[in-house]
Amino acid sequence: MELKTAHAGTLESGDILIQIFPAEKPGLEIALDSTVAYQFGDQIKKVIAETAKELGLENARISATDKGALDCTVRARTTAAVVRATGKDVWAD
Q1: 10, 16, 20, 68 - which has most CB atoms within 10 Å?
Q2: Nearest to 2 by CA among 52, 69, 80, 60
Q3: Are 22 and 61 in contact (CB under 8 A)?
């Protein structure tokens, strides 16, 4: 799967900015910057990883800058970024 750099989301309160880059090594590498990383960092990374893998993305660098996003927002932003990075339309029948 060819991967290009893509992003989704904003740095507004209650949102998350997801940036996807081609992998330098196999696997998903997730870097998280969040004011609530101590309490929710593992959960945020889990949602990002699960969403990416469900969409077939297994090799990428993902940078996430969280501003208090809920899981549903994390999932939506990750989905949008993966679609933009891969060109795969997950909403088509």
Answers
A1: 16
A2: 60
A3: yes
